[in-house]
Write a structure and sequence with these properties.
The protein is an alpha/beta fold. It has 16 helices and 16 strands.
């Protein structure tokens, strides 16, 4: 027994000696600094002479920060988490790396913060890849033209203000006008369309974010969606990093050749968080106390949206940033910045909202600078002049309120316009396929609904959609495949709609 114990001990010592022989200690220089000042969400640190811009800084208790201001004597750091345990004199260390986030298929259906930490009680994020939060935008030669539609399922947008895959389309309007509703409907409409969606909530109320997540679960949209959340209770640093983190997740899928959609809800709060950090770090204030580089933080974010060339996989990243206006002032500082960065805007009017015209899209103030290039060709046939005629109708309707006598043609134009407006109304969570949109718009354009009461238009629309879906299947397949509508196709749809309306008693 004693001999066996001696042999086991000798064997253990031999293994230890072998490990010690292979071990080669390395000498590393590690910079250690000290916190000299703590503010709300920021700290001033001394002793980190070699620190780089936007390098991660390690505080005690595992808290991370981001080097934001690099001055001669000290470094301004923004906290990326709760700093209540940090005090003046605490040690800080350089990490030598930039802020990054986990990426990959395991993020689908998950709710995370801007550091990649899970918030949904579904366990840790099991991902083998990480991407830097800040990345350069693709160069010009890596970009392909934006020519493929991203259908929102919202008739007034798809027909009049089309969005393409790889485009940046701004959604703006006052509070409580349905900006988030438009974005959520767009995500829901991507089901079975092979588009990965990222919803980024910036500084939102927890209850509002919870409602969005519940809606996405209800309509089975979380299967292809990742939600990046920072609430108003989070530090300004986390709110600042959130949209860049969301974009990095989308870029991972884009570089795999997939189509992605990112919703930034909203960049008003993002700008305010950056303004707060800048003022705390004593950066010079400019217009409305925003720092001079406020345009740059949004341009470098939205320039990452693109459609890649086929040699790089042909993936796309479509951005729908949201901005909140005050008293319908779209000429304010941040809205004008983003209007100049993006490829168009969808303006939601509180006046239309109060009248019950939902979604309250103001067609006159909304525009898509990519336009018909991204639409299915059939839209150009039936909705090519719709934007102009609808705008003219609104002008005529305003003029008619003065009680002036109107000729017969003008009265017909106003009555037709009222039915077009009724057709463009749409309930939330009810996306309409593009082929059915085209059938409905064609019906109202051809005057098939002119003699139907306004109150009956919604029922007539459902009738048209059902009849054409059942009897025009081959035409619908050609529409989706990108073929133009022929005159024979339009005549056939006209006949099917007329018979359906006649059988329902709308035609005499």
């Amino acid at each position: 027994m004693h001999e066996e114990l001696k042999q086991a001990t000798d064997s253990t010592f031999e293994k230890i000696d072998s490990i010690l022989d292979r071990y080669k200690p390395e000498i590393k220089v590690q910079e250690v600094g000290r916190v000299v000042y703590i503010g709300h969400g920021i700290a001033h640190v001394k002793g980190l002479k070699g620190v780089k811009s936007e390098e991660l800084i390690q505080f005690q208790e595992g808290l991370l920060g981001l080097a934001f201001n690099i001055d001669r004597e000290e470094t301004g750091v923004i906290f990326l988490g709760d700093s209540e345990y940090i005090e003046a004199g605490s040690e800080v260390h350089r990490t030598g790396r930039a802020l990054d986030i986990p990426v990959g298929d395991n993020l689908k259906g998950r709710v995370i913060d801007s550091m990649g930490n899970p918030l949904d009680n579904l366990g840790p994020i099991r991902s083998t890849e990480r991407c830097p939060v800040e990345q350069e935008a693709p160069p010009i030669l890596d970009r392909a033209p934006v020519n493929e539609p991203l259908q929102t399922g919202i008739k007034v947008i798809d027909a009049l203000i089309p969005v393409g895959r790889g485009q940046r389309e701004l959604i703006l309007g006052d509070r409580q006008t349905g900006k988030t509703a438009v974005a959520v409907d767009t995500i829901i409409n991507q089901r079975d369309k092979n588009v990965i969606c990222i919803y980024c909530a910036i500084g939102q109320r927890s209850t509002a974010v919870a409602k969005v997540i519940a809606d996405l679960h209800k309509y089975n949209a979380m299967e292809y969606t990742t939600v990046v959340v920072t609430t108003g209770e989070n530090t300004p640093g986390l709110q600042f990093a959130a949209p860049y983190a969301a974009t990095s997740i989308a870029e991972y899928f884009m570089r795999k050749g997939m189509d992605t959609l990112v919703i930034y809800d909203d960049l008003t709060r993002h700008a305010r968080a950056y303004r707060e950090l800048s003022l705390l770090l004593r950066r010079p204030p400019g217009r409305e106390a925003y720092p001079g580089d406020i345009f740059y933080i949004h341009s470098r974010l939205l320039e990452r949206s693109t459609h890649l060339i086929n040699e790089l996989g042909g993936g796309s990243l479509t951005a729908l940033p949201i901005i909140e206006t005050e008293a319908q002032n779209i000429s304010a500082y941040i809205p004008t910045n983003l209007i100049s960065i993006t490829d168009g805007q969808i303006y939601l009017s509180p006046e239309l909202f109060q009248k019950g015209i939902l979604p309250p899209v103001n067609v006159g103030k909304s525009v898509s600078r990519v336009g018909g290039k991204t639409q299915l060709p059939a839209y150009n046939t039936v909705a090519g002049d719709l934007r102009l005629t609808y705008s003219q109708f609104e002008e005529l309707e305003t003029f008619a309120r003065f009680g002036t006598r109107l000729d017969v043609d003008t009265q017909k134009s106003i009555e037709r316009g009222k039915r077009v407006r009724e057709i463009l109304k749409q309930a939330q969570y009810d996306p309409v396929p593009p082929e059915e949109q085209i059938a409905v718009i064609l019906s109202v354009n051809q005057g098939l609904m002119d003699d139907i009461e306004i109150s009956s238009i919604p029922d007539a629309e459902v009738l048209v959609r059902n009849a054409t879906r059942e009897k025009c299947t081959d035409i619908f397949h050609r529409i989706i495949s990108g073929e133009k509508l022929t005159s024979d196709d339009m005549q056939r749809i006209h006949k099917v709609v007329w018979e359906a309306l006649e059988n329902a008693g709308y035609k005499k």
